[in-house]
Amino acid sequence: MGKNKVVASIDVGNSKICTVIANMRNDEMQVLGVGVAPSRGLAKGIVTNYDQTREAIKESVHQAERGSGLKVSSAYVGVSGRHLTSTNSQGVVAISRNDRLVSPNDLGRVLASARNVAVTPERQLLHVIPRRYSLDGYEGIKSPVGMHGFRLDVETHIVTAETSSVQNLVKCIRAAGVEVEDLICNSLATSEAVLTPDEKEMGVLMADIGHGTTNVAVFKESNVWHTAVLPVGGYQITKDIALGLGVPMPVAEEIKRRYATLAPEERNTRAKEQEKPAAIWISDGHSVLQKDLNEIVSSRIEEITAMVLAELPRSEYRTVIPAGMVLAGGTANLPQLDAFVRDLVQVPARVGTARGVYGISDILQNPAYGTAVGLAFWGIRYAAEEGLESKGFGGRLKDSYKNTMFNLKSVWSEKNTLRPDTKDNSNAERRA
Ligand SMILES: Nc1ncnc2c1ncn2[C@@H]1O[C@H](COP(=O)(O)OP(=O)(O)OP(=O)(O)O)[C@@H](O)[C@H]1O
Ligand SMILES: [Mg+2]
Fold first, then answer.
1. Ligand 1 pocket check: which of 211, 300, 307 to mutate, most ligand atoms within 8 Å of Cβ?
2. I need a surface site. Which of 93, 224, 276, 307 has the fewest CB within 10 A?
């Protein structure tokens, strides 16, 4: 990606809808406009009230447009929700050329064979990501184009989504006057913004703990190892506070944001200073003990963490993720969440905010905005390089070779001599 390109992304979250307009260049984005509107008409990542969601999207987009002076005609859009499923699928083809040289065409064929999984009319493909190739049984090949062999195998990570949920989301975006440039699974987008290449290579788990969902992605050897969407998030913490303290949800939300902490020492210091358990004054003379609040919050975080870890093989999770856990999403604003998770899981843990962002980006430095930033990064790195004139939503899903194309591009830039025949892949040629 040598040139500048202005793109827009929309993260339709359960608590907020965030639109970002940015000028993308190399590994950086210059933010031109940001719009954040409270989310309406959504539950656990699913549109439940079309009119409300459309209006909330409009509000967010218009805000970003006003800030930037630009009009959003199309955007990269995030997909979340329990309806997303992921699976790892294998593909195999024989190399057809007489000289047994692997061409981009072979790569396309092997991916097509891998994605030939049972996709019913109710479900559609969102991503087909090659994880690793093997050639004549030799494993661990990242870019086989230009190598010789008889048999090419690929292992892919496939993400599928419920067709109706995707259609409802796309309908809302379009009704807000924006075309869908590409649909991207939220956990991959957030990972793109908050993880470092080293972490992905070593093995890392990214947990985006939002409001209604927790989006998980595991990377190993720079490949997507696993993705999952869990139907829990900050909403459950707020609800626990509301129930535990007998207060309405908005009050519980405010208590959580203002007073909740996972820092044990802070609790102790406060209690000692006051020589009695520290109390928080709510309203109407009501109070709650700090330690009770912390108890409620830490129990729920323990539970969410356990659910996240259940996505890894039980006995060997530490060996899968030596780089530990990166925590994103609005719930990662809980003070000392990283230390709490580190103690609990006994792996490194840090809070992840978007990297490589500058311009009017203050708000985007909050872990809640990793997805919106990552959508733009993913879009520009993978989707835009497909080189298609118009990437309407329908066209995008018909052919999802984008990751193949990205691999090809890296091969070509590394070694010009590997550039394949143009007749083999004229599309890929344009992308390079
Ligand atoms: N300082 C804070 N302390 C604790 N929780 C917070 C804080 N700030 C925000 N949150 C919580 O973060 C959540 C919102 O996070 P985020 O913006 O990532 O969600 P979302 O993307 O809209 O939802 P989802 O990803 O589930 O679709 C809310 O539950 C909110 O209460
Ligand atoms: Mg989110």
1. 211
2. 276
